[in-house]
């Protein structure tokens, strides 16, 4: 069976948790596409390759490396993600993943709009910038890293602006995406909402 779930939205809205929860619930494979841009950004820095060559050289081993989740790498990722050649270099990998047998969940910024416009289920997961910054701030503090709330909020707003403002594949909800606003929802409620959307789309789906 081929069945693609496309999940888009800004950082720290709950996309990752929802995607992993859906993949587990339905037995689908999961790809966090942000890791492709993070690994590309890091490859540029470490190897001196140009951004396009770095994107073409990214493979599964790069996605499994530790240290991709830092704020510094997120910033690099957001920068290389604005380069059209980098985005183009990463399309085939994502589309192949999406159409694998057994079902797939992909989360990112442009999955429902550009990578998989034909996805069987689409969600746009969002939350206010303040709530997302608070979550990031709490995560940083919990992991023992120094952080100040104003600085984290500033980073969130800057990254949102770059991801929504770029000319190529900007972050936006597909017209047929179901909106899930997690500002005032706990993760269980958000996951339940997402599960019911996917269940609904799976009913009557064949092939
Ligand atoms: O989801 P994330 O925070 O790991 O993403 C890191 C950056 O990568 C994000 O700022 C924008 C970019 N990105 C993208 O442009 N398109 C995607 N499908 C996923 C991520």
What would your notes on this structure say?
By secondary structure, this protein is α/β, with parallel strands linked by helices. The chain has one domain: P-loop containing nucleotide triphosphate hydrolases (Rossmann fold, 3-Layer(aba) Sandwich), CATH 3.40.50.300. It is built from ten helices and five strands; from the N terminus they run βαβαααααβαβααβα. It has helices at residues 15-26, 34-47, 51-57, 60-63, 71-80, 84-98, 111-115, 129-142, 149-165, 187-202, and strands at 4-8, 29-32, 104-108, 121-126, 178-181. The chain has a five-stranded parallel β-sheet, sandwiched between helices. α3 (51-57) runs parallel beside α6. 2'-deoxycytidine-5'-monophosphate (DC) is lined by residues 11, 33-34, 37-38, 74, 77-78, 81, 108-110, 159, 163. 2'-deoxycytidine-5'-monophosphate is lined by residues 11, 33-34, 37-38, 74, 77-78, 81, 108-110, 159, 163.
